[in-house]
Amino acid sequence: MNSEGRGTTQPHPVSENRLPETFTGNRALQLEEGLLFEIGRTDVSGVDLPEPPPFRDRLGGHARTTAPDLPGLSEPEAMRHYVRLSQMNYGIDSGIFPLGSCTMKHNPRLNEKMARLPGFADVHPLQPASTVQGALGLLSELSHVLLELTGMQAVALSPKAGAHGELTGMMSIKAAHEAHGQTGRRIVLVPESAHGTNPATAALIGYQVRAIPARADGTVDVQAVRDALSDDVAALMLTNPNTCGLFERDVVEIAAAVHEAGAYFYCDGANFNAILGKVRVADLGVDAMHINLHKTFSTPHGGGGPGAGPVVLSEALAPFAPVPALVTTENGLRLAEDKGAAGAEQALGRMSAFHGQMGMFVRALAWMLSHGSDGMKQASEDAVLSANYIRASLSDLMSVPFPERPAMHEALFDDSWLHGTGVSTLDIAKALIDEGFHPMTVYFPLVVHGAMLIEPTESESKASLDLFIAALRDLAMAVKGNDKARFLGAPHYAPRRRLDETRAARKPVLRWTRPAPLPEAAE
Ligand SMILES: *Cc1c(COP(=O)(O)O)cnc(C)c1O
To answer: What CATH number should be reported for the domain holding residue 421?
Structure first.
């Protein structure tokens, strides 16, 4: 608890039996911080507001008579509050952030500089097109690069995240089936290892989801897909590389089987960063794929922050793209919103109010242009190399569920090496926090027991990977040496100890309530 707010909340016990408690609750320069409501005082404000001149209100007697109960802080107190909170955070700018599937990669500062150029940052979506030709030109260039990298026919930039791109692509598929009178197709096939957004998307637009089991080697069996295909199937949703970090080798055969059955092939492209510049998804037979700009082309994301999920469409689906579409006219570029104007004769309408996330587009294009085509290819090669380096460096101590083939951009471990030790995947993740690392993704993909999914990305140096590997090796040795104290109750050094995550998810306390006033002391 900082000096302003001391005494308003319970001090948090610091690592029982290990470290002495401090008077302030601070740990060296790691400062405790209460909630704004706990440290703010209603009689204080950061600004001096003049008394309003007398006026007659038009609130019909509903004007408030008491001051709003707002927590007030002086200007420096307000600043310290937010700086202290930010220092309790961990981000890719503080260290390796090895979350598998999420691809938390370094966002070069050049991207930020470009995104802040007033011509991009300050434009208004309702400005006349003639005044934003540069910004539209950037959208055009980004679209061109995305189509080059994927070999696809059309791209819609407006989806605001991967899941939103999935929805857009699947809505295009549904619109295409409807246009062709194929309204009886009610089923979408989704492999068991899929990201949860895949079945959720299919269900949201009224499809029944049928799971395709994984083969023993972690990939999808073309025969299992063939067996599940029928006149009732609208699409297959497949992630490639899949969420076990493996490339689906039979993808071309799978696509052919899907097309033969009159269905479309949706590819979840969230893992595009593993094959960028190496594989054009059009050559794999993909009809629709979203691209998480915030995973493949750097740009920060997470915590509900901005993302962008452009969706690329094959020739068959291009007429069913959403609006707006970027078109070139004799007066320059414009965003066409009328069906047909952009070649999307049966466009499905808007997916968002305007054109999408401008700042994300600028960051993505800045990353693409600064890497160049050779650099992008190298980025995916290095991401794959980093993941395999981690896997190879740990596989003597930790168990690898699919060791037959090399990994792509992420290394997957299961918990069979922990059996009988009393230590779980969650304990390993928590102990990693004590070592100063954000944990890997745990318990996902669901097809692997006690999964630990580590994605290092291409931008981590070998020294950084070596330190991460050494820390995990040390933890693995501690497990084998039966040093349970290191794990049980970890993290020991975090500002908050182990949280009851189930309770936090099931019974979240989202509203602060003022504690009852203490009874007046007897005179
Ligand atoms: C991240 C991810 C998604 C969802 O993308 P968001 O941008 O988080 O909505 C979908 N599929 C896979 C495989 C992902 O990794």
So the answer is: 3.90.1150.10
